[in-house]
Every structure is written in structure tokens, then in C-alpha cells.
Amino acid sequence: MDHFARLGLPAALDLDPAALDRAYFALQRQWHPDRFVSRPPAERAKASSEAAALNDAYRTLKDPLGRALYLAALNGVELPGDGKTIDDPELLMEAMEAREELHEATTAEAVERLAGRAREQVRTALDGLASLFLAGDKPAIRKALLRLRYLDKFAEEARARRTNIERPRA
Amino acid sequence: MTLLEIHEPGETPLPHAGEGTLAVGIDLGTTNSVVAIAREGKPAALHDETGRAMVPSVVGYPAAGGVAVGEAARQLLASEPRNVVASIKRLMGRGAADLHAVAGVLPYEIEPGSGETDMVKLRIGGKPRSPVEISAEILKTLRRRAEAALEKPVERAVITVPAYFDDAARTATRDAARVAGLEVLRLVNEPTAAALAYGLDKGAEGLYAVYDLGGGTFDFSLLRLEKGVFQVLATGGDTALGGDDFDRAIAERMLAERKADGLAGAIDETAVKSALALARHMKEQLSDRDQASGRLEVAGVPSFHALSRGDFEAMIAAFVARSIEIARQVLADAGMTAAEVHGVVLVGGSTRVPLVRAEVERFLGKAPLTDIDPDEVVALGAALQAEALTGGGDTLLLDVTPLSLGLETMGGIVEKIVPRNTPIPVQLAQDFTTYQDGQTAMAIHVVQGEREMVADCRSLARFELLGIPPMTAGAARIRVTFAVDADGLLTVSAEERTTGVAQRIEVKPTYGLSHDDMADMLYDSLDNAEADMTQRLLTEARVEARRNLLALDAALASDGGLLDAAERAALDAAKARVEAAMAGEDREAINAAAEDLETLSKPFAERRMDRGIRAALAGRSVSDLESRVADPAGE
User: Fold this and answer.
1) Which of A32, A37, A166 to mutate to test the interface with B (most CBs of B within 10 A)?
2) Domains, chain A, ranges and CATH?
3) Is the distance from CB of B481 to CB of B489 less than 8 angstroms?
4) N or C: less crowded end of chain B, CB within 10 Å?
5) Contact call for residues B513 and B168 (beta carbons, < 8 A)
């Protein structure tokens, strides 16, 4: 059973976070191991594996990028593993330039500007992804997802760097 | 499928006790422990004769024999400091290599040779003792207190652990409960338990932060509370940060002052313990005063020390800053800002320190909630969860993994399988392959932590998957599955997928307890079994006597008219004798008084029965009676 089906939701990129929470909470009320504390071991094991599968589904679908990657995989789009060489020269150039900018940014404001730009780029790219999925353009989906994955990582790095700059010097 | 049970020793599920036993909530703290019970959604901490809810988490093994726990152990500190151990929670599940994390002068004597491949042991009272058995003594005391207060056997408990406790420490806690004769219904994270107490008792809803600074551990958690759902969004902490660090800073300063004054007396374990006790006292004074002072005596030489709140705050500023730093990281992990937090709950005695409160308030921009006693709130939440688990209930508690779990790969790099803040229970798998032609075995090293390199993470277990059929490099598909249960405990399994060949793997938990250790401890606990049994029989005698008294009271209320004044007076006197005996500790006296009462109330019971039969027969037809006989439940 795929993650969408498990939560009783349509397999779509666009997902209402409140609907996801509702579906997840309702199913966890049914399957969480806390409900099975004094039941026979076989029932406890079943509940535990159901609850684990629900948690996996929820955490994958909650994050928009995770959801896009998962939906792409369901549609047969294969991405190279994390840390593998990226075979897109355009993206490599973009990544190198952005890293350099981040390296040179020394104030929290400057880092935040870069992080904000990355977040904006993530949003735009996610918006564009919907039409690619509709068109079923697999090479374009793959290219867009690779860029999204990089942007996400960049936003994370910028966040870490900002935390470092903001840290009060005790 | 091959199974590696890292948490093996404590995991064997005990058969469930009968419905007659109660389930309590236990906060097994670094400095103090509390036991509580919830009935119909109302939690209450259980107090001792003097009205104290907190049991100091101090265990003493007096030279005269026996075990002292709590206040009694603390008193022993003055005369036999070497036979007393405090803050044992800091050593739960820890090996010798972890001791650097327990910074500063150690007020413990470590058993030489222990902790290399297992948990460290302490040499105390001339015997090596593991943190598990020492913790079990505290749990036994709490259990006895609960049984005395509830007048019922207590065999099941929800026990809280710091959210940031790793797998070894969680396993050690479960083992300690087992040695104390308690079945752990669930290990609940302390901040989550605190949120439960606020959410269920005070009806809080929205995004809440829990700042939990105890004696030895710090946790910060972010939860969403909504219509009975408690969803932990992110958690973080430090298992070696707490009020003990404040004490140690003060104590080190006092010992340095003595040295500067050229006072005689070596700074040994005893001196450190005395200085720590005084330091704690001075710290507590500074919570509502600007100045504290005290007298320290080492080897008969006294010295006098004074400390201003300003100086104290300067000494602990770095510790508090570190806690705020962790809080900042947790907020970032959840993708939330301080402004979005509805309220912040303070937990742990160390949050009484004014600087801590001020810094939390400054960071989150709102005054912390303290309506529930920060010393009791965790136990109260645990009690609510114990009731929910045994009696049913609509509360849903969704917790997360505090630390990432992963495997060592080539070059000592960690491959994370379960990222931190993943909701539990969870089961995640990843495929690995062989790197040499004809490779038939694969070493698997399980680690916990956030760092990239294995050397910086905590090693949980190592095992080897054998019997992989020889293939070319990269052809085998070895699936490693990490399963984390609702208690936060990990099971790792590995399987070769191309051929389905599976090998059972024996693994020795790195810092857990071996089966032999566990067996020894269970055996040792038999030494105390006699005392435990005496207590149990006493509790049972009280319960039985109480039940008879209640039944008699009910009978007197409805049929008291069957007795004349003299008979009534004799019965009342016998009742008073039973009540007096119940207040004492002598089981035989209780049973004797109860027997007297029963003999004395026999005529009354007979008269009531006669009257009952006459009432039943009056005005009834024979067929009526026949149908009543045929259907005894028809009454």
C-alpha cells in the first residue's frame, strides 16, 4: 500500500496539511501501541507495525519536497542517491555560485537574505512541479527535483550558518 | 529474518497482572523521585507520613547492613559518605568511555575494570553495584510508598525518562524497574509527561514548549496540543547538563577558597560530597535571597563561605546559555519561531533558579507557566498516562526519536537511517551491498547521534551478518531495518535479499547489561525478598481489614437497629482497635484485631441474615420463590 492510500488521501502533489493531520490522527487513534497495552502479543505486534507504517507515511508526505520525491518515485522517476554526482552542469554552476555567496556572507541579515531567496526558489519550483506532473514530463520532473533537493540543502546550510552567527558569545 | 535485539535483557514482556493491581506514574529523577496515581483523570502525587512527595534519589548501603533510600540515605551521608550514592541516573547505561561526559570531580568510586564492554559499576559499601540495581532500590521504595498509600499491590508503572536519553539508558531504566518488580507499561519522555499534565489537567491547547532542567539532564521539547492529541514536533537536550552543574560550580569555588586560605585537609571524595551538599543548600537559598552563606567542615577544619546572587549567576551563565542554545535548535528543527509558541512549561527543580526563569522568558518572550509544581508535574503526567493505558482513554500521545540512528559505512562515516524527530514507533530500512568479490560476511555497527563521523557518535552495538552467498562485489542486497518501538527502544535486523539467506545474529549490547548481570541482580533482589514480602503481607492485611470495616459500616448504617446500646458500644470499640492496629506496622496485630471484630459482629450478621430471609419470604408465593432460586442473578 502506498503512503497516500494508507492515509486515505488522493495521490497528488497538492495536499491540505490539515487534512493530512486529520487522517493521520484518526488512524493513529486506532492503531497506536498505547491502545494495545493489555492485548495479546500478536495484536500488539500488528498495531506496532501499522502505527510504524502510518508514521513513515505521515513524515514522508508532510514535507512538500518529501511528498514530491515520493510521488515522482511512484511515477517511475529515478533520482541519483544523495551525495552522488549531479549530472546537470547548469545546476552545478548555480550551486557553486550560491555556496560562494553564503561563504562571503558574514552578518545574520546577509545570510537570511540568501536563505530567504532559497526558500522563495523552493516555492516557485514546487509550484512549477505540479504542471510537470500533469504533463507527465519525466525528464523535466527529474531535473526540477534535483534542483529542489539542492535548494533545500542550501536553505538548511544557511539556517545552520545563521544560528552560528546569532549564537550569543558567552 | 535475522534479529538483533539490542535491548534484549529488559524486553521480555512480563505477564499482565490482574485487574486488581493499580498502575502508577513514576518520575525517576536525578535528584528526586516522585510516584503518583491518577483516578478518573485526576492525578495526585503520593506523599509519605510527613507529607513529602519527593524521595531524594539517594541510596545508601550502611555498614550495619540493609539499604537506605531517600531522606534516610541522605542522613547517612554525614556518617558514612562512602556508602552513599546520589545522582545515579547520570550513569544509567553508561560505559567507562562516557565518564568524561559526567564532568568535574566525580563523587563516585568506579569499580576498576567495569565499563569496558558493559555498564560501569560503582564500588560502594565494599561491593560492586551497577546503576541498574541502585536505581531499582529507589523504585522499590516508591513502589512500597504507593502500596502503603493505596493499600493495594502495585505491579505496573509508566516511568519517565529524559527525552534525550539514548537507547542504553532507556534499556537500563527498564531493567531497573524489572529488578524492582515493576512491569513498565511505557517509558514516557519527561517533557511529554509534563505537557500531558498541563494538557489534561489544565486544558491547554496550541503550540507548547517544555523547558525541563533537572538535577542532571536538560530537555527541551515542542508539542502541539489539540483535542486530546499530544504531538511532539521536535525535541533536544543534553544528558549532562543540570542543577548538579550549578552545585559543582559552587562547590569547586568553596574548595578553591579553602585552598587559597591554606587550610589543611585533602580534597577527597568525602570533602567533595560535603561541599556539594552545602553548595546545594546555598543555591536553594539564592532562589529567594540575594546572599547565601554556609560553613564547610573537612577533616575537622571549618571554613566559612559567602555567595551573592550576582556571583552565582555569573558562575552558571554558560550552563543556562547552553540550554537556551539547545532550545533555539529545537525550534529551528520544528520550523517554528518563538512568537508561535503559545506557552512554555517549566519542569524540574533547577527551573526555580531566577536566572533560568528570566532567560527562558527572554528567549520565548512570554512568562513561563508554573501552575503545576515543577517537581511533581512529570510524575502527574506519567500517572495520567498510566491510567490511560490501563483504563483506556481517548488521549493520543505521539512522540519522536530524540537522536538520529544510523550505521557505520566505509571510512567511518555515519549513514543515518532514522533521523531525529521521527515519530515513533517507526520502522525504516536501507539497502547496503558488498564491496569485495566473494564477500560472505558484513560487519554492522549501529550508532546514535547527530555527528557525521562514527567516532563522534555513541556506539550502540556491533554485529556481523554471516552466510552471505559469494557474489561479485555490489551484487548482494543487504537490507538493514531499524525498528524503534513506542518506548523509544531500538531493534536492528539484517537480511540478505537476493537469496533470502538469513542468519540469526547473537549480539552483546555495548553498554547494556549481560544476561549474567541481570540474573545476579534478580538473585540479589531475593536477599531483600523477605522484607518485600513482609511489606506485601502488611499491605494485604490492611486492605482486608479496611474492606471488612467498610462492609460493617454499611451494615450498621442500614440495620444498626438490630443491636442494643451495649452491643453497639462493644462493636465500635472493636472497630477502633482495628483502626489503631492498621495505623501500625504489625500485620499480626491487624489480623488479630480484625478477627476479634469478626467474632464480635457474628451475632449481628446472623440477625441481619434472619431478617433478610424473613423480608424475602414475606408476601411471596411459592412460585415466586422457585423462580428466585432458579435465577440467583434476578435480585
Assistant:
1) A37
2) 3-62 (1.10.287.110), 89-166 (1.20.1280.20)
3) no
4) C
5) no
Q: Which of B186, B229, B425 sits opposite A25 (nearest CB)?
A: B229
DSSP letter assigned to residue B431: E
Query: What is the chain B residue with the closest CA to A34?
Result: B389
Looking at residue B199, its amino acid is G
Cα–Cα distance for residue pair A135/A120, rounded to 1 Å: 24
Question: Is pLDDT above 80 for B627?
Answer: no
Ranking B120-124, B386-390, B449-453 by mean pLDDT, the lowest is: B449-453
**Closest chain A residue to the Cα of B17, Cα to Cα:** A38
Report the 3 state secondary structure along B502-548.
Answer: CCCCCCCCCCCCCHHHHHHHHHHHHHCHHHHHHHHHHHHHHHHHHHH
What is the CATH number that goes with domain B243-315? 3.90.640.10
Higher pLDDT among residues B363 and B109, named by residue = B363
Give the number of A-B residue pairs with CB atoms closer than 8 Å: 60
pLDDT reported for residue A58: 96
CB-based contact A48 B425, cutoff 8 Å: yes
Does B529-634 carry CATH code 1.20.120.1200?
no
Instruction: Determine the residue type at B152.
Output: K
Picking from B396, B424, B485, the nearest residue to A29 by CB comes out as B396
The beta strand positions in B46-153, using DSSP E, are 55-56, 58-60, 68-69, 84-86, 122-124, 127-129
Could you tell me which CATH number the domain at B405-518 has? 2.60.34.10
* pLDDT tens digits for range A38-79: 788 888 888 999 999 999 999 999 988 899 999 999 988 877
Residue with the three cell numbers 547552553: B322
Per-residue model confidence (pLDDT) at position A50:
93
Contact list, A55 vs chain B (CB under 8 Å): 422-426
Q: With 70 as the cut, is the pLDDT of residue B18 above it? A: no
Whether residues B425 and A33 touch (CB distance < 8 A) is answered with yes
The pTM score is 0.75
Tell me whether residues B394 and A33 touch, CB distance under 8 A.
Answer: no
Contact, B26 vs B136, CB < 8 A? no
**Reported confidence tier of residue B431, pLDDT bands at 50, 70, 90:** confident
The shortest CB-CB distance from A56 to any of B321, B398, B428 is to B428
- Regarding predicted confidence, which is higher, B625 or B184? B184
Q: Identify all chain A residues contacting B427, using CB atoms and an 8 Å cutoff.
A: 49, 52-53, 56
Report the catalytic residues of B.
27, 89, 190, 212
Residue B597 predicted with pLDDT over 60? yes
Q: Where are the domains of chain B?
A: 243-315, 405-518, 529-634
